[in-house]
Design a protein that fits this description.
single chain, 503 residues, alpha/beta, Alkaline Phosphatase, subunit A, four-stranded antiparallel beta sheet, 16% strand, globular
């Protein structure tokens, strides 16, 4: 049997509910097609709700505390073995197009980074550098979201080569100009120069090369949307009516039983200084109050960003069909972590471990192996992607990896491969440090050095409105879940080397 191509398609910061097949308010025909032709997993979780750690987990099969890219603004050490390294040893060609974010926006001895200024806009450098990098033989990278001043790298070269010589005017200046007007919602960048189009075009080129060479490939199409800023070209910016949007809600009193930083999000003038260690920003440590009309517009544009990305994903799927590769390609769609759209009074991503941030949209398609049109509640974790892909490719999974092989679950021949998932979030060295344990019914979050915590019964309280941490009636449940949490922590220690002798 021919080894399958692997096509990993990821969005950035996408709420798990933003799929048309489960949410009639949004239109995602391409992802709906993928779900009809594969399996949609309803209980997939990130390893960490920020970009760099979660993306590093996808390619290493390790939790952030083990691959060492433990928070945003840190680097994935380049000596950590990756999925791409392993599949290359077995004849695969590998490529990544889009967002990598394995390195920080600054460079320092021991944490050298290519993805920092002024290197990002040194196009002569990027014309020469196309890999290898983190297991990918070829990389075509960008770092900006929408009009951020981080625009550059291979994306800028592509814009220039396709006729947009003055591409800089569509992006914020660097160095930053505090007087520069802020674009909101409608981006004047011509649609054909958007990152969505660039990623689709380049991924299709890699697929065409694979079809000619008949070499199996591991390709990562890494999209940037719908990560804020909420900004997209027309017609996508006006595709959804803000008045028809229904942001999440905050119920009166629901934060009273939560740790203090939850309540602070709804207070004017709250002192967040404790959460910002070493002068570095902590995501979400600020007020989340805002104008209702503006929030609805933000949400409408967020939906438009998803729909635009969906169109280009559809064109990638069409290319698989046209090239005769669809039957031999394992397609995985997911995101790096979730997003808040008003749920519990929160917006964006932050240090609040509700399902909205931790759960992921996830779809798997592999014709003839993965059953079509199914949904599954089997727990999935980002650390499972690498070992499962290796299994699909017929490659032995190394003991170093912490993820579990989900291939039989994906193929519908096994009900579940794990009974829990663990999500880390160490946003600073000592202060903001929590871990969440999720199982079929219960969910617990523990904070390092703090007496407070969270315990939710997802069966009785799926919207997580009632924290049971201090509820006397659930004291025994808390003890039982805490014990399972500890057992899970012990069980996830990897075994890189087997024991082969008594001494």
């Amino acid at each position: 049997m021919r080894r399958p191509n692997i096509l990993l398609i990821t969005s950035d910061q996408q709420h798990w509910s933003t799929l048309g097949c489960s949410n009639p308010r949004i239109r995602t025909p391409s992802l709906d097609r993928l779900a009809r032709e594969g399996v949609r997993f309803e209980r997939a979780y990130c390893s960490n709700p920020t970009c760099s750690p979660s993306r590093s987990s996808i390619i290493t099969g390790l939790h952030p505390s083990w691959h060492h890219c433990w928070t945003i603004g840190t680097k994935l050490p380049e000596d950590v073995p990756t999925l791409g390294d392993l599949v290359q040893q077995h004849g695969y060609a590998t490529a990544l197009v889009g967002k990598a974010h394995f390195q920080p926006l600054a460079s320092a001895p021991g944490s050298e980074s290519l993805e920092c200024q002024p290197t990002l806009r040194d196009l002569d450098f990027w014309r020469e550098f196309r890999g290898p990098w983190y297991g990918f033989q070829q990389v075509e990278l960008a770092r900006n979201h929408a009009d951020e001043s981080l625009a550059g790298q291979h994306y800028a070269i592509w814009m220039q080569e396709n006729g947009l010589k003055d591409w800089q005017r569509y992006f914020r200046r660097w160095p930053h100009d505090p007087n520069e007007p802020v674009r909101r919602h409608v981006w004047d960048l011509p649609e054909e120069y958007h990152t969505n189009v660039w990623i689709r075009e380049r991924i299709v080129a890699h697929l065409e090369s694979a079809a000619r060479s008949q070499t199996p490939v591991l390709l990562w199409a890494s999209f940037f949307d719908p990560h804020p800023p909420y900004l997209v070209p027309e017609p996508w910016a006006s595709m959804y009516d803000p008045q028809e949007m229904e942001p999440g809600t905050l119920e009166e009193g629901e934060l009273d039983l939560m740790p203090p930083h939850y309540r602070m999000t709804q207070e004017a003038g709250a002192d967040w200084s404790w959460y910002h260690e070493d002068g570095l920003h902590c995501h979400g440590a600020h007020s989340h109050r805002g104008d209702e009309a503006e929030r609805r517009k933000d949400m409408a544009v967020y939906y438009g960003m998803v729909s635009f990305m969906d169109r280009e994903i559809g064109r990638i799927l069409d290319a698989l069909d046209r090239l005769g590769l669809a039957e031999d390609t394992l397609v995985i769609f997911t995101t790096d972590h979730g997003h808040y759209l008003g749920q519990h009074g929160l917006w964006y991503k932050c240090v609040f471990h509700y399902e909205d941030l931790l759960r992921l949209p996830m779809i798997v398609r592999y014709p003839g192996r993965v059953p079509a049109g199914g949904t599954s509640a089997a727990l999935q974790s980002q650390v499972d992607f690498a070992p499962t892909i290796l299994r699909a490719a017929g490659i032995e999974v190394p003991g170093l990896m912490q993820g579990v092989d989900q291939y039989d679950v994906w193929c519908g021949t096994q009900e579940a491969a794990r009974d829990h998932a663990i999500v880390e979030n160490r946003h600073s060295r000592t202060r903001v440090n929590m871990r969440t344990y999720v199982e079929a019914r219960y969910k617990m979050t523990v904070y390092r050095g703090q007496p407070y915590g969270e315990l939710f019964d997802l069966q009785q309280d799926p919207e997580e409105r009632r924290n049971l941490w201090d509820d006397p009636a659930h004291a025994q449940v808390k003890t039982q879940v805490m014990h399972r949490f500890l057992q899970a922590e012990m069980a996830r220690e990897p075994t890189r080397m087997p024991r082969i002798a008594g001494a």
